[in-house]
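Weekly puzzle thread! Below is a chain. First person to post its structure in C-alpha coordinate form gets bragging rights.
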Amino acid sequence: MVSGPSRREVRARRLPTAVKIVIAGGFGVGKTTMVGTVSETQPLRTEELLTDVGVGVDDISGVERKDSTTVAMDFGRITMRNEYVLYLFGTPGQKRFWFMWDEVALGALGAVVLADTRRLSDCFPSVDYFERRQTPFVVAVNCFEGAKRYDLAEIQMALNLGPKVPVMLCDARKIDSCKQVLIDLVLHAMKVRGLVDAPAPQQV
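Winning reply:
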Protein backbone atom coordinates (compact mmCIF):
# COMPACT_ATOMS: atom_id res chain seq x y z
CA MET A 1 0.00 0.00 0.00
CA VAL A 2 1.40 3.36 -1.03
CA SER A 3 0.93 6.05 1.58
CA GLY A 4 0.31 9.67 0.68
CA PRO A 5 2.65 12.54 1.46
CA SER A 6 3.12 13.47 5.09
CA ARG A 7 1.84 16.74 6.52
CA ARG A 8 5.41 18.03 6.67
CA GLU A 9 5.93 17.22 2.98
CA VAL A 10 2.70 18.94 2.03
CA ARG A 11 3.71 22.04 3.98
CA ALA A 12 7.14 21.98 2.35
CA ARG A 13 5.58 22.01 -1.12
CA ARG A 14 3.07 24.73 -0.31
CA LEU A 15 3.87 28.28 -1.26
CA PRO A 16 4.47 30.55 1.74
CA THR A 17 1.58 32.69 2.94
CA ALA A 18 1.97 36.40 2.23
CA VAL A 19 1.33 38.59 5.27
CA LYS A 20 1.25 42.38 5.40
CA ILE A 21 2.64 44.00 8.55
CA VAL A 22 2.68 47.72 9.40
CA ILE A 23 5.53 49.27 11.39
CA ALA A 24 4.28 52.49 12.99
CA GLY A 25 5.23 54.97 15.70
CA GLY A 26 6.38 58.53 16.23
CA PHE A 27 9.02 60.55 14.45
CA GLY A 28 12.55 59.20 14.90
CA VAL A 29 11.48 56.09 16.81
CA GLY A 30 13.36 53.62 14.59
CA LYS A 31 10.84 52.42 11.99
CA THR A 32 13.22 52.79 9.04
CA THR A 33 15.99 51.14 11.05
CA MET A 34 13.80 48.16 11.97
CA VAL A 35 12.63 47.55 8.40
CA GLY A 36 16.19 47.84 7.11
CA THR A 37 17.59 45.57 9.82
CA VAL A 38 15.22 42.68 9.27
CA SER A 39 14.58 42.84 5.52
CA GLU A 40 16.14 40.03 3.48
CA THR A 41 15.99 42.23 0.37
CA GLN A 42 17.26 45.74 -0.23
CA PRO A 43 14.63 47.83 1.60
CA LEU A 44 12.74 50.57 -0.19
CA ARG A 45 13.20 53.87 1.60
CA THR A 46 11.64 57.26 0.96
CA GLU A 47 13.82 59.35 3.25
CA GLU A 48 14.55 63.01 2.63
CA LEU A 49 16.90 65.34 4.49
CA LEU A 50 15.37 67.56 7.14
CA THR A 51 15.51 71.22 6.12
CA ASP A 52 14.70 74.59 7.60
CA VAL A 53 11.20 74.24 6.12
CA GLY A 54 10.39 71.74 8.87
CA VAL A 55 11.41 74.09 11.70
CA GLY A 56 8.36 74.70 13.87
CA VAL A 57 6.51 71.90 12.09
CA ASP A 58 8.45 68.77 13.03
CA ASP A 59 9.19 68.31 16.74
CA ILE A 60 12.71 66.86 16.99
CA SER A 61 13.15 67.29 20.75
CA GLY A 62 14.89 64.20 22.05
CA VAL A 63 16.09 63.20 18.58
CA GLU A 64 18.05 66.32 17.65
CA ARG A 65 20.72 64.33 15.81
CA LYS A 66 18.21 62.95 13.30
CA ASP A 67 18.85 64.53 9.90
CA SER A 68 16.37 62.71 7.63
CA THR A 69 12.75 61.62 7.66
CA THR A 70 10.45 59.18 5.86
CA VAL A 71 8.04 61.04 3.58
CA ALA A 72 6.04 58.12 2.14
CA MET A 73 6.85 54.68 3.54
CA ASP A 74 9.55 52.09 4.11
CA PHE A 75 9.19 48.64 2.60
CA GLY A 76 10.97 45.36 3.28
CA ARG A 77 10.40 41.62 3.23
CA ILE A 78 11.36 38.64 5.40
CA THR A 79 10.57 34.93 5.07
CA MET A 80 9.85 32.86 8.18
CA ARG A 81 10.72 29.13 7.78
CA ASN A 82 9.29 29.10 4.23
CA GLU A 83 5.78 29.29 5.72
CA TYR A 84 5.22 33.03 5.81
CA VAL A 85 6.54 35.94 3.80
CA LEU A 86 6.12 39.10 5.85
CA TYR A 87 5.84 42.28 3.84
CA LEU A 88 6.78 45.19 6.09
CA PHE A 89 5.40 48.67 5.53
CA GLY A 90 6.81 51.48 7.68
CA THR A 91 4.59 54.53 8.07
CA PRO A 92 5.83 58.15 8.15
CA GLY A 93 5.82 59.53 11.68
CA GLN A 94 5.05 63.22 11.28
CA LYS A 95 1.47 64.45 11.53
CA ARG A 96 1.60 66.10 8.09
CA PHE A 97 2.00 62.64 6.51
CA TRP A 98 -0.72 60.84 8.47
CA PHE A 99 -3.12 61.07 5.53
CA MET A 100 -1.18 58.15 3.96
CA TRP A 101 -1.77 55.77 6.87
CA ASP A 102 -5.06 54.38 5.53
CA GLU A 103 -3.41 53.26 2.30
CA VAL A 104 -0.39 51.77 4.07
CA ALA A 105 -2.51 49.90 6.66
CA LEU A 106 -5.09 48.51 4.22
CA GLY A 107 -5.18 44.71 4.40
CA ALA A 108 -2.59 44.37 7.17
CA LEU A 109 -2.73 41.36 9.49
CA GLY A 110 -1.38 43.50 12.32
CA ALA A 111 0.98 46.28 13.33
CA VAL A 112 4.05 46.95 15.42
CA VAL A 113 3.90 50.26 17.28
CA LEU A 114 7.46 51.30 18.08
CA ALA A 115 7.87 53.43 21.19
CA ASP A 116 10.68 55.60 22.57
CA THR A 117 10.57 56.26 26.32
CA ARG A 118 12.11 59.70 25.72
CA ARG A 119 9.01 60.64 23.68
CA LEU A 120 6.46 58.07 24.79
CA SER A 121 3.45 60.24 23.96
CA ASP A 122 4.46 60.22 20.28
CA CYS A 123 3.09 56.70 19.88
CA PHE A 124 -0.40 57.63 21.12
CA PRO A 125 -1.66 58.47 17.59
CA SER A 126 -0.54 55.07 16.32
CA VAL A 127 -2.13 53.25 19.27
CA ASP A 128 -5.39 55.18 18.80
CA TYR A 129 -5.36 54.56 15.06
CA PHE A 130 -5.05 50.77 15.30
CA GLU A 131 -7.51 50.57 18.18
CA ARG A 132 -10.11 52.44 16.10
CA ARG A 133 -9.50 50.15 13.11
CA GLN A 134 -9.55 47.07 15.40
CA THR A 135 -6.20 46.06 13.94
CA PRO A 136 -4.21 43.76 16.24
CA PHE A 137 -0.97 45.38 17.36
CA VAL A 138 1.91 45.06 19.78
CA VAL A 139 3.99 47.81 21.35
CA ALA A 140 7.75 47.38 21.04
CA VAL A 141 9.89 49.75 23.11
CA ASN A 142 13.05 50.54 21.15
CA CYS A 143 15.88 50.64 23.70
CA PHE A 144 17.92 53.70 22.75
CA GLU A 145 21.25 54.19 24.46
CA GLY A 146 20.96 56.65 27.33
CA ALA A 147 17.15 56.45 27.46
CA LYS A 148 15.58 55.75 30.84
CA ARG A 149 14.30 52.20 31.28
CA TYR A 150 10.86 51.46 32.68
CA ASP A 151 9.03 48.28 33.61
CA LEU A 152 6.77 47.01 30.84
CA ALA A 153 3.80 47.27 33.21
CA GLU A 154 4.54 50.97 33.69
CA ILE A 155 4.64 51.53 29.93
CA GLN A 156 1.41 49.63 29.45
CA MET A 157 -0.25 51.79 32.09
CA ALA A 158 1.20 55.04 30.70
CA LEU A 159 -0.18 54.21 27.24
CA ASN A 160 -3.53 53.13 28.70
CA LEU A 161 -3.31 49.79 26.91
CA GLY A 162 -5.64 46.92 27.54
CA PRO A 163 -4.20 43.86 29.30
CA LYS A 164 -4.29 41.83 26.07
CA VAL A 165 -1.98 44.17 24.13
CA PRO A 166 1.55 42.71 24.26
CA VAL A 167 4.35 45.11 25.26
CA MET A 168 8.00 44.15 24.80
CA LEU A 169 11.50 45.57 24.62
CA CYS A 170 13.48 45.53 21.39
CA ASP A 171 16.57 46.87 19.68
CA ALA A 172 15.74 47.96 16.13
CA ARG A 173 19.41 47.56 15.17
CA LYS A 174 19.52 43.82 15.98
CA ILE A 175 17.98 41.31 13.61
CA ASP A 176 17.11 38.66 16.22
CA SER A 177 15.32 41.25 18.34
CA CYS A 178 13.32 42.52 15.35
CA LYS A 179 12.42 38.97 14.26
CA GLN A 180 11.11 38.13 17.72
CA VAL A 181 8.88 41.21 17.72
CA LEU A 182 7.44 40.18 14.34
CA ILE A 183 6.86 36.61 15.51
CA ASP A 184 5.11 37.84 18.65
CA LEU A 185 2.94 40.16 16.54
CA VAL A 186 1.90 37.43 14.10
CA LEU A 187 1.05 35.05 16.95
CA HIS A 188 -0.97 37.78 18.67
CA ALA A 189 -2.77 38.80 15.46
CA MET A 190 -3.60 35.18 14.59
CA LYS A 191 -5.09 34.70 18.03
CA VAL A 192 -7.12 37.92 17.89
CA ARG A 193 -8.41 37.11 14.40
CA GLY A 194 -9.28 33.53 15.33
CA LEU A 195 -6.61 31.93 13.14
CA VAL A 196 -5.33 29.69 15.93
CA ASP A 197 -5.24 26.62 13.67
CA ALA A 198 -2.78 28.26 11.27
CA PRO A 199 0.87 27.18 11.62
CA ALA A 200 2.77 29.68 13.74
CA PRO A 201 5.93 31.26 12.37
CA GLN A 202 9.21 30.35 14.06
CA GLN A 203 12.57 32.02 14.34
CA VAL A 204 14.79 31.30 11.33
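Puzzle host: Confirmed. Bonus trivia for everyone else. Residues 175-192 form the longest helix (18 residues).
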